[in-house]
Amino acid sequence: MEENIEGVFLSGETKGQFKKIITRKGHFRDIITVKRFGFLENIVLLKEGSDAPGIISHIGNRLTNCKLSAIRPKKIKRLLKD
């Protein structure tokens, strides 16, 4: 957690389908990599300065069968300090 790279955890959609939608919506440039985590589970690492909740709100309506969660290291660090 040294870096402040945000990410998106998605469950319920294939990596290929996610990439199609993220490209159509113009966010492909925000992605560092998409890693398969499990069956229909992927973790998307975003470039520094990209906003995970913003991307989720922009693409979420296109992924109706998918659950999306933001991974935000800054918030996690704040929670661990308390």
Q: In words, what does this structure look like?
A:
The protein has helices spanning 15-24, 52-59, 73-81; strands spanning 7-11, 31-38, 41-46, 67-71. By secondary structure, the chain is an alpha+beta fold. It has a 4-stranded antiparallel β-sheet, with helices on one face. The longest helix is centred in the N-terminal third of the chain and has 10 residues, at 15-24.
Short description:
This protein is α+β, with helices and mostly antiparallel strands and 82 residues long.
Helix and strand topology:
Blueprint: E1 7-11, H1 15-24, E2 31-38, E3 41-46, H2 52-59, E4 67-71, H3 73-81
Question: Can you tag this structure with a few keywords?
Answer:
alpha+beta, 33% helix, globular, 4 strands, 3 helices, single chain, four-stranded antiparallel β-sheet, Alpha-Beta Plaits, 82 residues
Give the biggest sheet: 4 strands, antiparallel
Shape: globular
Rg over CA atoms, rounded to whole Å, is: 13 Å
Give the number of domains. Answer: 1
